[in-house]
Every structure is written in C-alpha cells, then in structure tokens.
# Entry
Amino acid sequence: MYRRTIHDTIGYFDPYVHNYWDWDFFLRVANEFRVKRVATASVLYAFSNEGDHLSKQMNETRQMYLNRLSEKHQLGHLPTKNFWLLLCESEVQKRRATSEIVWNGEPFRSRLAHIVMC
# Structure
C-alpha cells in the first residue's frame, strides 16, 4: 500500500523491465522514500514445485528483463532460480521474518456497503 503521490516523484511502471515491474517500482520507491515493512501478510501467493506460476518459467525473454533490472539498479548477478527454490536456500532462510495473517480468505462485507454512492 502506498500513496498515489509517489507516482508524481518516480513515475509509473517501466516497460523496459517488463516482467520485473514490481521489483523495479519497489527499488525506485525505496530510493526516494522510507519504506516500512508491515508484519502482516497482505498478498497471497501460491508457490509450489508443481505450479505454473511465472517464476518457474525462466526463458530467454525473462532473463533479458532480469538482466535489464539488474543493470538499471546496479544489482550485480541475480539468481534465476524460481522463487520457491530460493525460499529454501539457507541465506534466504536466515532473513525469514514472521508475519501475522489477518484474513483467512473468506469473503467479507465492507462496513461501508450500506452507503449508496451516486
């Protein structure tokens, strides 16, 4: 979650790094603003060895975009393993942080649902 006015400072998403827009956006925000980690799971991902998520599909095009992201932010060599495998590595495990899950995935009704908007 962030303030819309951030776009006034850093712009929008950069198509030059296509598959890594989210990483690029975060790195540009972090370069200009203070970023705070909230210890709450706010995004749900389903990663597995059998899944068909994009992080498992490292083709030449994705490698090109990863290299562009790395060059743009001077990140050096970035591993091309899928995210599921990276999570299991000891260096990543050392940095693991606990998060509080505050929503069980069940549908809910907004407390503002009774307000009629014109």
